[in-house]
Amino acid sequence: MKTEDCKTVSPLFSDAYDRKLSLIERLRIRLHLYTCGACLNYVSNLKFMHEVFHAQEEMCENEKIQAALSPESKERIKNTLKAAK
Length: 85
Known about the structure:
By secondary structure, the protein is mainly α. Helix content is about 80%, strand content about 0%. The chain has helices at about 5-20, 25-35, 35-60, 70-85. Helix 1 (about 5-20) packs across helix 2 and helix 2 (about 25-35) crosses helix 3. The model has no long low-confidence stretch (mean pLDDT about 85).
């Protein structure tokens, strides 16, 4: 495939994580990946990153890790923002 095909198909790779792709879009991806090793590698990396971030998110939820600011930190931020106006 030509590089132009990569440019038109590659946005669909990440779109697939955000929405359900149409049948035509899924077919375009499959056909393109069948002939393009670079995009196949790119999709593999995207999948890996998605899995890592998802696992990290689950771990944080399971351990109930919550990033909370102390009242003192909130006050300092508030004062800094007021001074910047």
